[in-house]
Amino acid sequence: MIQSYRLQPASFYQETPKELVILSIIAQSFFQPFSLEDNLLVILTALTSGAGIGFNRAMLFLSEGEKLKATMWLGPRSPEEAEAIWAMLSSPGIGYAEIVEHNQELINRFMPELQPRLRTLEYNLDEEDLKLPALAARNREIVHVKEASSEPLVDARFLDFLQVDEFLCLPLIARNEIMGEIVVDNAITRAPITSRDIELASLCSLLAGNYIHTTRLYKKVLEMEKLAALGEMAAFISHQLRNPIVAIGGFTRQLINQPCDREKCQRNLKIIQDEIKHLEDIIYRMSHFLRIKVKELVPIDYRPILLSIKERPDIRTKAVNKEIVVSLPENNSLILCDPVYFEEAIINLVDNALDVTPPGGRVYIRASQRNKKWVTIVIKDQGPGLDEKSQEKMFSPFFSTKESGLGLGLLFVRRVMENCGGKIEVRSKPGRGTMFRLYFQARERGPS
User: Fold this and answer.
1) Last residue of a domain, one of 190, 220, 250
2) Has residue 226 been placed in a domain?
3) How far is residue 247's CA from residue 306's CA, in Å, rounded to a whole number?
4) Which of 29, 130, 212, 270 is deepest in the core (most CB within 10 A)?
5) Range of the domain at 339
6) pLDDT tens for residues 381-414?
């Protein structure tokens, strides 16, 4: 007997352990392209949903340097509002996905009104006479407050906002750094906060703190990668532009400083003109390859495009003493792409293949369709092939095995495939050539 189950249950039952519920609610964020704010909302949902811990309300603080700032609030503002919300959330079939979606709508509805008041709840963690809730974050300890109105360690502004006598402060800590804090309460039901509630809430705070830390580290890595890419681009541009600019400068100085006969002046001007054209070509190719804007994907017939490529003058010139073999199915489906970018991507691959294929060799263009979903187009050369190190870098900007290459062609092809919802695979071995396999979404032909 075989039984299948969903990766995450659609709904939860009363007998389900709350630890499992919390982890399941939070785990769903890994299945979605959520932002940091969205994922923190997932954690607030785990704290406040009835299937989770069941606190009535939650407030999120995030740290910025030595500041602790209130940034998000989740929960009803009155008993009537709470009754309506909880009635909806207790409907049959309601699961964590619906709860998170509902909470997102709740945040969007209430935050514009609450934002001005939340901005007033900002604390400097360096202050000597720091009060709760910020004091809990600085001390890195969970604090359960009862009879808050008579407690001098509670900040009066915060208490005026919260309007409740019992609450729980949950510091968000990672690697001993303060990431923020969550404050939860039961302002509507007035239910006491139990030790079991605190145990479960601490699990959420641990996950939230580490998630914020990981996200911030990831942003730093991205910034470092961007800086590294900028440095690489600057070095590349400097290398590509230096020779033409030096040549233009040198021959211009000759024209200015030294008298020359007509023939020599014409020669110098022709060199300057050629170098300027070279610069224009570099700038055009860089801007063209890096800026891809597919306005609309359309079904296109790839057969005539592939058949016409070998007849292009530039391709025919490069293919002297070489053969281009085209093999296409008779009854082909259409593919989903941009026709201009599709042709440019194929030309780019064929051009590269001709560059590395020796005289007397062949370049193959093949198309096939093994299922209804994908059409596969293969470009294969008989060149020297690539080692593993070159294959790892081949889609990196400005990497090229050709002495005069810009290193943008393969990046352009990959970006076209991504924009067309397709895929690209590469197979290459030293001495056995290189094969690019492009997968395009198939579309059946309509009636003629």
Assistant:
1) 220
2) no
3) 40
4) 212
5) 298-443
6) 988 888 777 777 777 666 566 655 556 678 788 8
Q: For residue 229, tell me if it sits in a domain.
A: no
At 67, list the tokens. Answer: 């500041």
CATH of the domain at 241: 1.10.287.130
Domain check: are 204 and 324 in the same one?
Answer: no
Both 67 and 181 in one domain: the answer is yes
Q: Rounded distance, CA 380 to CA 349, Å?
A: 9
In a domain, 30, yes or no: yes
